[in-house]
Specification:
about 575 residues; alpha/beta; eight-stranded mixed β-sheet; about 15% strand; globular
């Protein structure tokens, strides 16, 4: 039995010869005897004999004790095998790590990046809430560029090649600070807006301020000018932009595997007398999966959906369907599908430079992972006809659009549902006695006009009546749409919450700020009069718009009669 084992161990020295059969360089792993370069070769009297048995024994020392040859050779064989296993594992690990790194770099090199903003802006990023969280705002842009063979094949004419692209699809994705709700707001491409001065980051060409259609901004300084125009229109700080063209839409739709859409009648969006063009979309009545070029047709259809507003609604339906599908397939956690999507996304998208790595794009994508579909609202900007061209252009509706922008600025859900965030923990620092708490009260009511007279003094009196005798009116100029209680450090957090509770101000209005030196109450435009803090105005989406909720899998598009068959 022992001799048999020795012969088996001996046969394993043929491994290095097998390496040459695979085309490997044997000098990297060992010679035919199994010796690895750089390692100590065993003395001659320890080498195996012709049968692998060697001399069979050697003296162990005085007394003539003998050690079993087979046992020693078995140990040498096991050590040799161990070295081979370690070497193979090292090659495998290093090879895998290297391949992973190279693939990561490959994805990073796919990404096309651009300047975040092409204009100066005084719009500030939202302040963190009490938990230190901030909302996320991303501008999604669809370019109609025909300046590539792939894009020209998918839509447009040869005459459009070389023309500056238009931002025909523009949507703002807003994810709440607590990542529990989200909204997508579209602005129609034919909306007349004020466009700020922009500089093209590639050519250096400067464009002066003007008033024009919002889709022209892409040709006046790239996506950064579109972002700057949105900030001026809404007052919302936009963190990033992402842009895709026709070919990119087709690639992304294929990578996702399509999404279901619904039409109430048979539809063909083709040319009609006096109305040339059309997306080419052809579907029979019912619910159908669309992907690739057909998905692009759905997203571009305007005439059959009656208007740009109908097209925006159809785009929202498609996006909601995609999100539902990704969640149902666990695509946010499925490594294989994530890799496929990452490959396509990095090839199809152009993004603002601060999110121009795979890691940052992945983190950006994960923001929607935990948002329930019944808390995703998609809508179009409330609008009115432009008196100068009522049949072609629109303007933001003065009241309802302003209300929508304010809801986004203040991170108020537009779906009308109560916040789903968990109750905030009690401040670690216990509040002092009311009479020992110093509070500065400022009048910030003058947002859209003059401030309410002596408002800071009136609220200071309310605090004093509740025992906060250390409250003082502060004449520092301030404007705030919503009332807020600020504190500079953790040791004053309890005091700030105590003051807010005494006046009935919600805890969501209490936050840490480095701009104050003590507890500071800023009375906002939402509390211009009265001794009782008002209840929040009714939530829900503004009027004069269309809203599609993410969990509505029954949504279906109406078809304009001339395009039915």
């Amino acid at each position: 039995m022992g001799q048999s084992r020795v012969r088996e161990e001996g046969t394993r020295r043929r491994g290095p010869r097998a390496a040459s059969d695979l085309g490997w360089d044997e000098s990297l792993y060992g010679d035919a005897s199994g010796h690895v370069p750089g390692s100590r070769r065993a003395p001659d009297d320890e080498q195996d004999g012709p049968e692998g048995g060697g001399s069979g024994a050697r003296r162990a020392g005085p007394g003539g004790g003998r050690r079993s040859g087979p046992r020693r050779r078995a140990k040498r064989g096991r050590r040799r095998i161990g070295r081979w296993i370690a070497l193979c594992l090292s090659v495998l690990i290093l090879g895998t790590a290297g391949a992973g790194y190279l693939y990561y770099e490959h994805l990073n090199n796919n990404i096309r990046k651009g300047e975040r903003s092409s204009a100066d802006s005084d719009v500030k990023k939202s302040a963190p809430n009490a938990a230190g969280q901030t909302p996320l705002n991303v501008l999604l842009i669809g370019s109609d560029s025909r300046n590539s063979k792939a894009n020209l094949k998918l839509g447009g004419s040869k005459q459009s090649v070389g023309a500056k692209p238009l931002a025909d699809v523009q949507m703002l994705l807003h994810v709440s600070a607590d990542r529990k709700n989200a909204s997508v707001v579209s602005v129609p491409r034919d909306t007349k807006v004020d466009i700020p001065p922009c500089t093209d980051p590639e050519s250096g060409e400067k464009f002066g301020a003007t008033r024009d259609l919002i889709n022209t901004t892409l040709g006046r300084g790239g996506p950064g000018c579109t972002l700057a125009t949105w900030q001026e229109l809404t007052g919302v700080y936009i963190d990033h932009w992402m842009m895709v063209d026709f070919a990119g839409v087709v690639s992304m739709a294929d990578a996702i595997g399509g999404a279901e859409v619904c039409v109430r009648d048979n539809v063909y969006d083709g040319p009609k007398p006096g109305v040339p063009g059309g997306s080419g979309l052809r579907l029979e009545k019912g619910t159908w999966p669309v992907q690739g070029e057909q998905a692009l047709q759905w997203l571009r259809t305007r005439h059959a959906f009656e208007s740009d507003f109908g097209r925006s609604k159809a785009q929202h339906m498609y996006m909601n369907s995609v999100i539902r599908k990704l969640k149902e397939q666990n695509a946010f956690t499925d490594t294989g599908q994530l890799m496929d999507l990452a490959e396509t996304a990095t090839e199809s998208l152009q993004v603002s430079e601060e999110v121009g790595t795979v890691k940052k794009l992945f983190e950006l994508g994960m923001t929607l992972k935990d948002v329930p579909t019944d808390r995703i609202a998609m809508l179009t900007m409330p609008r009115i006809p432009d008196p100068a061209n009522p049949n072609a252009h629109v303007l933001p509706a003065p009241d309802e659009a302003d209300r929508l922008w304010e809801m986004l600025r203040e991170d108020v859900p537009v779906d009308g549902k109560e916040p789903t965030s968990e109750p905030k923990p009690e401040p670690k620092d216990a509040a002092a006695e009311p009479s020992d708490i110093g509070i500065m009260v400022r009048n910030g009511t003058g947002v859209n006009g003059p401030p309410a007279p002596r408002r800071a003094a009136a609220v200071t009196g309310l605090l004093a009546g509740k025992g906060f005798t250390g409250a003082r009116a502060d004449a520092t100029p301030e404007t705030a749409r919503r009332t807020q209680v600020l504190f500079p450090s953790a040791d004053l957090e309890g005091d700030a919450h105590a003051a807010a509770k005494a006046l009935g101000i919600p805890t969501s209005a209490v936050r840490k700020s480095t701009e104050v030196s003590g507890v500071t109450l800023i009375v906002g435009a939402d509390w211009r009069t009265g001794d009782t803090f008002p209840k929040p105005e009714s939530a829900g989406p503004p009027k004069n718009t269309e809203t599609v909720m993410g969990d509505n899998d029954k949504a279906c598009m109406d078809i304009y009669a001339p395009y039915r068959f």
